[in-house]
Amino acid sequence: MQPFAYMRPETLAEAVSLLAERGPDTRVLAGGTDLLIRLRDGSVRPTVVVDVKRVPELAPGIRVGDGTLVIGATTTMTDIAAHPLVRQHLTALAEAAAVVGSVQIRNRATMAGNLCNASPAADTAPPLLVHGAVVVVAGPAGERRIALDDFFVRSGVTTLAPGELVVAVEVPTPASRIASAHQRRTRRRGHDLASVTLACGVDASGVTRIAYGSVGPRPILFEDDSGVLADATTQAEARDAVLEVVFAGASPSVRSMRAGPEYRLAMLRVLGRRALAAAQARLAEGA
Amino acid sequence: MTMAVATSIELVVNGVRRQLDVAPHHTLLDVLRDDLALTGTKECCLVGECGACTVLLDGRSVDSCLVLAVEADGASVLTVEGLASPDGRLSALQAAFLDQGGVQCGFCIPGQLMSAHALLADNPHPSRAEVEEGMAGNLCRCGCYLQIFAAIDQAVAGKAPEVRAAGPEIHAAGATAGARTTAEGLDQ
Fold first, then answer.
1. I want to staple A104 with a disulfide (CB 3.0 to 4.6 A). Which of A143, B63, B111, B118 is the partner?
2. How far is it, in rounded angstroms, from Cα A236 to Cα A246?
3. Does domain B92-157 have CATH number 1.10.150.120?
4. Within an 8 Å CB–CB cutoff, is residue A238 touching chain B?
5. Which sequence spans correspond to the domains of chain A?
6. What is the CATH number of domain B7-83+167-176?
């Protein structure tokens, strides 16, 4: 591994000014499960690695906000998957966090890191999109909030400005709850990235949200407010017609080693139907 | 270019408090093997896929190839050398691995043991599905998965395996780790 300097700021202001001053020379270290691989293979060569795990504002933990759950930036996948409020309100997120990598990876990997890497295959992205998550960001100009759908640009690129870092992710927990489910296809459980990753959320007002990843340069969110998908009695043909529109945004690469585009598109439809059925059933159970 | 300066860290490894100067770009795996001579923890894929380098960091299993040593500052680390009791008696899990023939070439076994140890610490009576999920981050290219699962089942069932004295390798590793103190700071 290339040598680098290691900085461990203990205040948010210190972290922000380090990132702002040193700019492209820096890399933020949270869980390190992606960064260490890239440091080792030389695909990133920062001169300063900024470990943000001891910045109090980014501390791990999940707290109840004003109609939201606020997930600290350094909260690990293990803790998200196990948290009772996440399982209750953000079921798809708990399910997604529980299948990322292996136990060892989930014990280190953070959800904010998963979002900031902006991998098209990020498993926590579809559930968070379905639940309307907002990324809370701190930077030289202060704090701002970015709707997650406006956060992703393409693989590895987000709308974070230079010097900005994610402090927390806020996820609404509305009174009319969103019942959700996550589905994923992978070559081998325990290691591989998703070939298709998808979440579906249904609420009592009849709105259905489906978000999916690993089938294009960034995760895609689609909202159906026609009520057709939310209605469990909709005929398969009518349902599938809407799902065709939902999945129109998928553009899987022909060059991926993980799965061919035909397979991905076929699985997208299978997982979409499964997640929809699971979300509908959960809404019915919880009502 | 900013020069990387050695950083002083303090951590508890297998119950022994250690103070070390480490380079920021050295991983916990590097430091365990090269600085502390705890070579039970294996270096293999270096991308967090095989689990051969699994250790417990503050009670949680991690791939030590994906943790910088400086990140472990202040933490408690348990490696495979810390599983046997100070007098060399194998843990129930280690003995079960031997009883069930879970060990063939042996290279992945330290990592397998640490994952199994962490699994049973969190969940003393896992279902088969939970065992499979708990062990999914550890590859065995000899294909001993079924024997390893049987060993975990044996440890769970508490079938008293024959008590074995640890082999000479384990004594040697224990000796290089220095005199053991109490298990202070050790999350088990």
1. B63
2. 15
3. yes
4. no
5. 178-286
6. 3.10.20.30
